[in-house]
UniProtKB/TrEMBL annotation:
Keywords: ATP-binding, Cell membrane, Cell projection, Cytoplasmic vesicle, Endosome, Golgi apparatus, Kinase, Lipid metabolism, Lipoprotein, Membrane, Mitochondrion, Nucleotide-binding, Palmitate, Phosphoprotein, Synapse, Synaptosome, Transferase
Domain PI3K/PI4K catalytic: 89-423
PANTHER family: PHOSPHATIDYLINOSITOL 4-KINASE TYPE 2-ALPHA (PTHR12865:SF7), PHOSPHATIDYLINOSITOL 4-KINASE TYPE-II (PTHR12865)
Catalytic activity annotation: a 1,2-diacyl-sn-glycero-3-phospho-(1D-myo-inositol) + ATP = a 1,2-diacyl-sn-glycero-3-phospho-(1D-myo-inositol 4-phosphate) + ADP + H(+)
Annotated EC: 2.7.1.67
The protein's name: Phosphatidylinositol 4-kinase type 2
């Protein structure tokens, strides 16, 4: 078996080989960034064993200990999440010393993934409210109109946590419409760094080249990694607005339309629970795979007809989890509420999937605790603000539960009065928590109903 130092060099060698070919798209500028920064040095000893199931890296982190890379929260390799079994096979070959086979597989792994987009990375300090946002219009708006900058119902500069939180809620509810999103640390020349950081990086590199003994004492060579959301890129999807317009002109078959409705309901459930304040028909996606008849199939007597497959992906969840319902200027409505699908009552399928979960106080409590573990990682985390965010989410869950039980439609759901469910303060100790429910009477200036 190989020691941790050799294992680290294999990992970093693979990272360097892939970094020039496999791309991670950065938010805002849309540039392909270097992913070599995913792999820091080994921090704990690791020896591979035959018992480790490499095909299920995420499910077996407890067997692997602290892995020598930062690809996602929990230490999961971002590349392994995407390239999966091939990377795992390469690891096995390296561990068993089959270097020739490993080298051949590495070449086969790199070539087909040339210029492939694997994820979208949104750095925290380059968000619209971040101090390193590259768009000068945002800077000008912040300087000239600070009172109109941002959304007062949201916690500023936590969009990356909102993205990861939406993915967490999606997984807990088993909706499977949000591309897997984690909080990661990445460094790249294409990111927007301050002049001081760039000068320090160049100085360290120069010191390492000229005076290696001095340069080796630095904890980090290169630009500092940035924290942000890392969302896997989904292929074959287009804006929902494109497909919805096409479906109006070319109506879908009944079974396919049923698939679309079921997927749409999952989007409604997600957006409503996290109270997404930025959901238009241009930032959720639809994938429509319609099998085409081939010339060879026409010549045969028997043809197997495949039904079209339609799926929905909910992206751009960075403006969710508000600390209060919108009550200032804008209402931030759900634009899907004007679609024909929103007028259809919730199906039995979505009720069977969602109701048992959100009706269970223990499930809701576990969801709150998972969100707390995620949100508290932010340096500016405020417990009071988090409790307000959870109070809004509890109210949304309460309304959704009632709407599902009353056989309402998504349109009726969004017309229900906004509710806040806060933890009741009590001077007496109790094994169970009590809650107080309140309705928000103040409406935004530009209301949508």
């Amino acid at each position: 078996m190989l020691g941790p130092q050799v294992w680290s060099s294999v990992r970093q060698g693979l990272s360097r080989s892939l970094s020039g070919n496999v791309g991670v798209w950065a938010s805002g500028e849309g540039k392909k960034v270097d992913i070599a920064g995913i792999y820091p040095p080994v921090t704990t000893p690791f020896t591979a064993t035959a018992e480790v199931d490499y095909g299920k890296l995420e499910e077996n982190l407890h067997k692997l200990g602290t892995f020598p890379f930062r690809g996602a929260v929990g230490g999961v390799c971002a590349l392994a999440n995407v390239l999966g079994a091939q990377v795992c096979q390469l690891e096995r070959l390296c561990c068993t010393g089959q270097w020739e086979d490993a080298q051949k597989l590495q070449h086969r792994l790199i070539e087909p993934n040339a210029a492939r987009i694997i994820a979208v990375f949104k750095p925290k300090n380059e968000e619209p409210y971040g101090h390193l946002n590259p768009k000068w219009t945002k800077w000008l708006q912040k300087q000239c109109c600070p009172c109109c900058f941002g959304r007062d119902c949201l916690v500023l500069n936590q969009g990356y946590l909102s993205e990861a939180g939406a993915s967490l809620v999606d997984q807990k509810l088993e909706l499977n419409i949000v591309p897997r999103t984690k909080v990661v640390y990445l460094a790249s020349e294409t990111f927007n760094y301050s002049a001081i950081d760039r000068v320090k990086s160049r100085g360290k590199r120069l010191a390492l080249e000229k005076v290696p003994k001095v340069g080796q004492r630095f904890n980090r060579i290169g630009l500092p990694p940035k924290v942000g959301s890392f969302q896997l890129f989904v292929e074959g999807y287009k804006d929902a607005d494109y497909w919805l317009r096409r479906f109006e002109a070319e109506p879908l078959p009944e079974n396919t339309n049923r698939q679309l409705l079921l997927q749409f309901e999952r989007l409604v459930v997600l957006d409503y629970i996290i109270r997404n304040t930025d959901r238009g028909n241009d930032n959720w996606l639809i994938k429509y795979d319609c099998p085409m008849d081939s010339s060879s199939s026409r010549d045969t007597d028997w043809v197997v007809v495949k039904e079209p497959v339609i799926k929905v992906a909910a992206i751009d969840n960075g403006l969710a989890f508000p600390l209060k319902h919108p009550d200032s200027w804008r209402a931030y409505p759900f634009y899907w509420a004007w679609l024909p699908q929103a007028k259809v009552p919730f199906s039995q399928e979505i009720k069977d999937l969602i109701l048992p979960k959100i009706s269970d106080p223990n499930f809701v409590k576990d969801l709150e605790e998972d969100l707390y573990e995620l949100f508290k990682k932010d340096p500016g985390f405020d417990r009071g603000q988090f409790h307000k965010q959870i109070a809004v989410m509890r109210g949304q869950i309460l309304n959704l539960t009632q709407a599902l039980k009353d056989n309402k439609s998504p349109l009726h759901l969004v017309q229900m009065p906004p509710v806040i469910v806060e933890t009741a303060r009590s001077h007496q100790r109790s094994s169970s928590e009590s809650y107080t429910q309140s309705f928000q009477s103040r409406k935004p200036f530009f209301s949508w109903w």
